[in-house]
Specification:
The complex is a heterodimer. Chain A is built from 12 helices and no strands. By secondary structure, chain A is mainly α. Chain A has 2 domains: about 40 residues, no CATH class; about 200 residues, MetI-like (MetI-like fold). Chain A is globular and about 75 Å long. The two termini of chain A are about 40 Å apart. Chain B has 14 helices and 11 strands. In chain B, strands 1, 2, 3, 4, 5, 6, 7, 8, 9, 10 and 11 form an 11-stranded mixed sheet that branches.
Chain lengths: ~280, ~350
């Protein structure tokens, strides 16, 4: 008969949530992260020009921002850019996800992951400067000036953000369904279209939303790579720095924050709804 | 195969959408520095479409222009940056002094150290860096001198802000001590360092956001740019802008034609347009700084046309440009500045 080892008695399994100081540390982190955002949103409703002293409640700065032609153009451009980059990035990420999951390990698999996730690992300023120089050479040689360059730059760094949720969803899916489809004489394309694709749709939508938000909020790459007439909203905001910030910037930031929160919330619901 | 060509066509479309067409111009200026109405007026008068993008520093603009293929035709560097860009071949001669409206440029601004005779640049706006004083709290004998911030009276102690720019603060210090600018003399610099260190005890902050600090009365006096001081005066009328009698630093932003500009003719039309008094007046009214064009005062907002911050006053100190100093002098300045910020 095998020996059973006597384990020391435990009142409950180890859980970091019950460690001393956890609650206070968690609160500290939450406050440190979110207090600045709450204060910024609070001052966007300020009546006076100041970003430090609150006088009266007013929607004045939202109205000014809405009437500002520079803000309107920048917002439309940001949305266009985010939409295009999301479409291209999600398509690429879907293909990448299908190719790299649920297969036997192949040679160079780690390298493939590194390449796909490269924008996450390399500091954004490095990517931005490299892209600026690279596109600069191309623009000088070919003489082409186009919005496509900025879209390309955004697509590339949005791919890993779209890839992650798609891959997670695929890993959760059984290959059984595809095998069944094959048994029933479905071609690979039909199997994809009627079986795999609908099942991975929550992952694809989650990936698309994440990519959209990331593209919308991007600063450094947009700042350096944007050409003439391609000012995105964050780039516009930075351009105002030298000449003094007014609560108009707070108003725009609050709206941007609100949009981001909505998207990320949907993302959260889509990915954590039910796990197989 | 069909999918690949579809994707290629889609990508091609996105790229093709942005090709340059005749009658357009791409302007790169400081953020929030250009009146949109001026651009609309230009398009209405000439039919040339003009796009505007904003930057927040000379360095950012330089980085993008240097990388090549930026797509911009015109940029607006500060004086010292014009010299740098000329030396690096980033801007080309636009023949400004041959243009029709050149006769409107004020004589004192024609031969500037960074562009003698105005071959390359059109003046956009200029300003000075003096002192904003809230006269509610002090209006005594030191009010015409740098002593306000370097040897302050009792009422202003611990209520002073300095701008967070090394070149401006050091220039002010050298003016106060009556020492030459771009000074590499070790003895002089030691005097400067000691003076700054002891003055620092009475300072509250070395920071931007000066209009907010003055209007919230967090500080009663500040090293400041004249346009910002005018904006502060609109909130608190007792705020006076001082041109210190020992002399003060002036800066000027100028419109230049980039070497790789695609729309050279349209750019020259715009540069000429900027030298007309009515347009210069509009530009000044928007940003709140003086321009270098004769006769523009009647086109500015009336309160600005007579504002002492912009036009000066009896007994004001004389603003002067300070050309950039050599590398070794800059290195010494940097040591003093880092010492100050500790």
């Amino acid at each position: 008969m095998p020996d059973t080892v006597a384990l020391p008695p435990r009142s409950r399994p180890f859980d970091v949530r019950y460690m001393p100081g956890f609650t206070s540390m968690a609160w500290l982190c939450l406050i440190g992260l979110y207090a600045p955002l709450l204060i910024m949103a609070f001052f966007s409703f300020n009546e006076s020009r100041s970003v430090t002293t609150f006088t009266d409640f007013s929607f004045r700065w939202y109205q000014i921002a809405a009437d500002n032609a520079g803000v309107k153009d920048a917002t439309i451009l940001s949305l266009k850019l985010a939409a295009l980059s999301t479409v291209f990035a999600t398509i690429a990420a879907t293909m990448a996800g299908l190719a790299t999951t649920r297969t036997r390990s192949f040679k160079g698999q780690a390298f493939v992951f590194a390449v796909i996730n490269q924008p996450l690992m390399i500091p954004e300023i490095v990517t931005a400067v490299g892209t600026l120089t690279f596109f600069g050479i191309i623009k000088q040689v070919t003489g082409i000036q186009s919005f496509g360059f900025l879209v390309l730059a955004h697509t590339v760094f949005c791919i890993p953000f779209a890839y992650m949720p798609i891959r997670a969803r695929l890993e959760d899916m059984d290959l059984t369904f595809e095998h069944v489809a094959a048994d029933l004489y479905a071609s690979p394309w039909k199997a994809f279209r009627y079986v795999t694709f609908p099942m991975m749709l929550p992952g694809i939508i989650a990936g698309a939303m994440l990519a959209f938000v990331i593209s919308l909020d991007d600063v450094i790459i947009s700042l350096l790579v944007a050409g003439a007439g391609e000012t995105t909203l964050p780039v516009w905001m930075i351009g105002q720095l030298r000449r003094g910030l007014t609560p108009e910037v707070n108003a725009i930031s609050t709206v941007l924050l609100g949009v981001t929160i909505i998207f990320v919330s949907f993302f959260f619901f889509l990915t954590f709804r039910k796990r197989k | 195969m069909r999918l690949t060509s579809l994707i290629a066509a889609g990508v091609g479309l996105v790229f093709a959408a942005g090709q340059a067409t005749a009658g357009e111009l791409h302007f790169y200026n400081w953020g929030n520095y250009t009146d949109p109405k001026v651009l609309e007026k230009f398009t209405a008068e000439t039919g040339i479409d003009i796009t505007l993008d904003g930057y927040d520093s000379n360095d950012m603009m330089l980085a993008k222009v240097k990388a090549g293929g930026s797509g911009y035709d015109l940029a607006v560097p500060s004086g010292f940056m014009v010299k740098i860009m000329t030396d690096e071949g980033l801007i080309q001669k636009a023949g400004v002094n041959q243009m029709a409206n050149f006769k409107n440029v004020e004589d004192q601004w024609v031969d500037v150290y960074f562009d003698p005779g105005r071959e390359y640049s059109v003046p956009w706006q200029w300003g000075s860096t003096g002192i904003s004083l809230n006269t509610k709290y002090y209006d005594g004998p030191k009010s015409d001198s740098w002593a306000l911030v370097f040897d302050p009276p009792e009422e202003l102690k611990n209520r002073i802000n300095m701008v967070s720019e090394m070149s401006d603060v050091i220039a002010a210090g050298l003016f106060y001590l009556g020492l030459p600018q771009c000074n590499g003399n070790k003895a002089d610099l030691k005097k400067l360092n000691d003076m700054l260190q002891s003055a620092k005890e009475d300072w509250r902050t070395i920071d931007y956001g000066i209009v907010e600090k003055m209007t919230s009365e967090d500080v009663y006096a500040s090293h400041n740019w004249n346009g910002a001081s005018m904006r502060a005066r609109r909130v608190i009328p007792e705020i006076k802008y001082i041109y210190p009698k020992e002399g003060l630093n002036a800066w000027m932003d100028n419109v230049v034609l980039l070497s790789d500009a695609k729309n050279v003719d349209e750019a020259k039309v715009f540069m000429n347009f900027l030298m007309a008094p009515e347009n210069a007046g509009m530009i000044s009214s928007f940003a709140g700084y003086a321009n270098a064009i004769k006769g523009s005062a009647e086109f500015m907002n009336p309160d600005m046309a007579e504002a002492p911050e912009i036009v000066g006053y009896e007994g004001a100190g004389k603003p002067e440009f300070i050309p950039p100093c050599t590398q070794e002098v800059q290195a010494m300045y940097t040591k003093i500045w880092n010492n100050l910020l500790k």
